[in-house]
Amino acid sequence: MKWFLTVFSIMLLTANLGLSQESNDGKDSTVLKTEVLNEVIVNGSAILGSKFEASNRTGSANYISAKELQKFSYNDINRILRNVPGVNIYEEDGFGLRPNISLRGTSPERSAKINLMEDGVLIAPAPYSAPAAYYFPTIGRMQAVEILKGSSQVQYGPNTTGGAINMISTRIPERFMGRATLSAGNFNSKNTQIVVGDSFKNFGFVSEYYNYNSDGFKNIDGGGNTGFDKSDYLAKFRMNTDEGAKVYQSLLFKIQFSEERANETYLGLTDADFNENPYRRYRASSEDVMEAEHQQYQLTHFLKLSQALSITTTGYVNKFKRNWYKLDDVNLGERIGINNVLADPETYAMEYNALLGNTDTPEDVFGIKANNRRYTSQGIQSIARLRWGADWLQSLELGIRYHEDEEDRFQWVDRYGFQNNELIRTTVGIKGADANRIGNAKAVAAHTLYKLNLGRFTFTPGIRYENITLGRINYGTNDATRSGTDLSERENQVDVWIPGIGANYTFAENLSVFGGVHKGFSPPGNNEGQDAESSINYELGTRFNYHGIQGEVVGYYNDYQNLLGSDLAATGGTGSLDQFNAGEVRVSGVEVSLNYNLLNNSSEKVRLPLTFNYTLTDTEFLSSFDSANAIFGEVSVGDEIPYIAKNQFNLNLGLGHEKFGIDMGARYIDAFRTQAGTGTIPTNLRVDSNFVVDLSGRYFYNSHFTFSANIINLFDTTYAVSRVPAGLRPGHPFGINFSITYGF
């Protein structure tokens, strides 16, 4: 195994120190409210760190705290993000292992058009050269989730159109603590989490084990496991000077490892079979399996030179290897992709019947592709923060990052046939014969963000710079040893400035207006001369608190000069990852978030919080083009972007008491089209709307023991979530699990 060592200096300002500094600078005393301090993640890896900070950005931002994550104890990021307006998601496997996330109408496929971060570091396997997120951090081990949209996220790149999601892992505690959680439910689903940590005067640590597994809720014809087993291991170690040192420093080392085996497939169902039994899987998918490993190393040093100046620097290495061995095609004289077979089973009747495995087939009928890939993402980033002023509070943030990543594809296809209802490998593929190439990227990114707070007015101009070199080395499918006999190379370069500006004005303690404009950007592919994705994005919103009703309403307009599409197997394409220009597009929308305690005037011992979130997303292509990509197809002016629901809402009602808590969450997702188009959505290009209710309850037995039960899909609603990668796919049916937590 190839190892990379990245050791540099300069690290972590804790959030509690940050708050006390803000107080010394004379910031409004509301910062020091007890509830704010309780929500702060004392960890320099946070972008926001609290709901207070999120509600005072000059752009749209959301902070999901540990208490909120614990309400339903979701292991699925899709369900967590349903509570955030402006997020569009389509599911795939029912467990959230590989989510497809869109922020403000960006292309959702494999979450490739947003910045995914863990502890402030890019976490997609190769965020520049191959951003499709086939790895996603285990959300069950996260302590908080931060979502930034609009001009609020110009510091974070390379993708600046939709926004950024930062997941904050378990922090080092301030005192000795431990926690163990055991959960079990239907489908033989189980969870185990063990956390132990402590802090001393000049040293702190935390270690964590997290396992999540299930036998799956689908049933393969003839039997077989359709579930998964994923384990995470995390350790953090911190050394620091005395807290009162003239120059305070700390050094944090984080190491994380995960391994996963998932019996997941790209093969869905035809419409007729889905209507009869949505949880069926065809026998031809019985050999499909994803095996993956992920490694993460971070070394972060924080230097506090004075009350006003701090510098944080992080060196990081992320490694990911996976082999998704999955059915790709059927060949009964002509190779037909499985997405085409399921989209038109009448035309491809012989191929469809072969998938069922009810009769023997000739040899080499099925191609099962070994999508064998290795990823490396590494770099160093440093951020300096300076604060000054009294009547005019000002701050300046300067950041720089050097980053390298690569995707190494070494793929092959084995051929199979059915004999006595069993898939038998009839030809062993030549390794590298399907794909044998390396995509790579080198990037230098820098940003500057200035903040001026003058009484009721806050003003934040900023600018980002990205210099990117994208390349590909293709050894060809006949050179398994990579001797270079059939070598081809290509390269593309991008040099771009990305400005943004935001402002906030507080009319009164309970009313403010904010807005901004910024440039949207997403890197192109490695085809020489290919244009980057670009847009100009506008937002205008208000935050208010009226008679206990707290809320935010935001309107936005994203004006794309050039939208990029990607050729992904996950969307029915060839899987080349080549990007293509989709021309001018308009995306606009409204985001509404309302919170109210129905027992606002009663005793504080009992709470009845009600939360309502609504998202309207309207999309339109302003240019016509013809695409081989399955979800775009032939596009005409006026067509809508596929896989974006126009309307969705989420309603949460809770009952809180010092001894127990009950929460009910209901979410509605509008029907959406699965191929670009306009007007009435054809049945075969449509995923119907759905309304799903979840329920959760917790009993706090004492200060150590908590008992809980969580129900997913309370009314066992049957619904489809997508038509990609190939055929209709179901959402999770009724699921229940019980858990016990012991903490000290």
From TrEMBL:
TonB-dependent receptor plug domain residues: 57-164
TonB-dependent receptor-like beta-barrel domain location: 372-714
Primary localization class, coarse: membrane
Keywords annotated in UniProt: Cell outer membrane, Membrane, Receptor, Signal, TonB box, Transmembrane, Transmembrane beta strand, Transport
InterPro entries xref list: Beta-barrel_TonB (IPR000531), Beta-barrel_TonB_sf (IPR036942), Plug_dom (IPR012910), Plug_dom_sf (IPR037066), TonB-dep_rcpt-like (IPR039426)
GO biological process assignments: siderophore-iron import into cell
Its membrane topology: Multi-pass membrane protein
Single GO cellular component term: cell outer membrane
Subcellular location: Cell outer membrane
Signal peptide span: 1-20
Similarity-based family: Belongs to the TonB-dependent receptor family.
Protein name: TonB-dependent receptor
